[in-house]
Structure formats: structure tokens, C-alpha cells
Amino acid sequence: MTVQMDIAALHDFIAAEFAQARGYVVDHVGDREITVRLPVDDRHLRPGGTISGPTMFALADVTVYLALLAMIGPKALAVTTNCSIDFMRKPAAGVDLIAECRLLKLGRVLAVGDVLIRSEGQSEPVARATLTYSIPPER
């Protein structure tokens, strides 16, 4: 399948349509895959000096959303219909989180993505998530 939105187009989309996702950085886009970086700062930390679960959930969700848009184009109304996330180990504080997504299914009305989240510089994942997205019908 051909990529419909490259890194620059995804960053432009975020700036114009999805202000809540500002701060996420797309590092790589390929056929049904994407890598998104979250530069971590104090607002992402929870007591104990680790990155919060909601921060990792949001990274997984945004990553699948951007992977989907990269493949189908700027359909802002694609929405999450399901998510399962496993928090596997404590993320490192003071380094970026890196999310790598593969779209396992890209159908006409549903997409399923698998995401591994790592702390930059570490090989073992800190979280794994699977998300399903509903794709709006063509009008």
C-alpha cells in the first residue's frame, strides 16, 4: 500500500487539526508502520519519578492514529474503538519514549495496530498496546 501522508504532512496535520498532539514527533513512516517519539518532560511524570500510565496510553493512541492517517490520508474523524495496554516495566525518566507501530489490519471500516513503547536507548519495551480504530465512510 502507498503511504498517503509523509512525515511533513503528518506534522502539518497535527499543527492544523490536532493541537492536543503537538509535541509528538514522527521519526519514521513506512508501509503500515510508523515510529513516534514523545519528548518527555516533568508534566509526563508521576510520583516516584516515572512516566505516567496515561502518558504511555496517549502515546500509543496517537501513534496508531498517525499510522492510520499515513496510510488513508487526513481523515480526522477516525476514532479509537478499543484499546488494550500492558505496562511491562518502569520507563526511564529523563529520556524520550519511542513508540513503534505496525498496522496489523487495514480494512475499509476498521484498522488494528500493535504498538511497542520503549525508553530511548533501551531495547526492552516498557509497554505494549493493541488498538482498534473505526474509519469513517467515504461521502
Describe the structure.
Strands 1-2-6-7-8-5 form a 6-stranded antiparallel beta sheet. Strands 3-4 form a two-stranded antiparallel sheet. The model has no long low-confidence stretch (mean pLDDT 92). The chain is globular, with a radius of gyration of 14 Å. The chain starts with 6 loop residues before the first helix and ends in a 5-residue tail after the last strand. It has 139 residues and is α+β, with helices and mostly antiparallel strands. The protein has one domain: Roll (Thiol Ester Dehydrase, Chain A), CATH 3.10.129. The chain is 22% helix and 40% strand.
What are the main properties of this structure?
two-stranded antiparallel ribbon, 6-stranded antiparallel sheet, globular, Thioestr_dom, 8 strands, alpha+beta, Thiol Ester Dehydrase, Chain A, 40% strand, 139 residues
Distance between the termini: 22 Å
Q: Assign the CATH architecture.
A: Roll
Number of beta-strand segments: 8
**CATH T-level fold name:** Thiol Ester Dehydrase, Chain A
- How many domains make up the coordinates? 1
Major sheet characteristics: 6 strands, antiparallel
Number of helices: 2
Radius of gyration: 14 Å
The average pLDDT score comes to: 92
What would you call the structural class?
alpha+beta
What amount of the residues lies in strands? 35-45%
Classify the helix fraction into a percent range: 10-25%
Spatial strand arrangement across the major sheet: 1-2-6-7-8-5
Shape: globular
What is the N-to-C order of secondary-structure elements (H for helix, E for strand)? HEEEEHEEEE
Q: Could you list the spans in which at least 5 consecutive residues all have pLDDT below 50?
A: none
By oligomeric state, this entry counts as single chain
What would CATH call the class? Alpha Beta
Q: By CATH's scheme, which homologous superfamily applies? A: Hotdog Thioesterase
